[in-house]
User: Fold this.
Amino acid sequence: MKLRFEFESIECTAKIFEELAPNTAKAIADSLPLRAIANRWGDEIYFETSIDCRIAENSRDFVEIGDVAYWIPGRAICLFFGKTPISDDKIRPASSVNVIGKIIGDPLELRNVKDGEKVFVELIK
Assistant:
């Protein structure tokens, strides 16, 4: 499964690996398409959704550049392209996230997304 993220400034695609977190991936797919407002937290973009998935699957305290994840407490989808304000030598989310996929292409292009931009997310084939 692939997702397209259309921000006001850029567009990117992510490959979702359903086997990593099947319940989370299904909850996200079932909620699409969706519209939200992007928030920046260091080199992370996250946006709140109406997705209500409370199952910790493939949950990690550290992530890699390009990871796509779901943050259970914030009901948010997160895109990581560098360090967050609490990172040290590793990229650290605010709390554990369910990692579900990877950005296809250069995740550093996400640096162009500004706080408050609109985002549209859809499933693509």
About this structure: The chain is about 10% helix and 40% strand. The CA atoms of residues 9 and 103 lie 16 Å apart. The chain has one domain: 2-124. The longest strand covers residues 97-104.
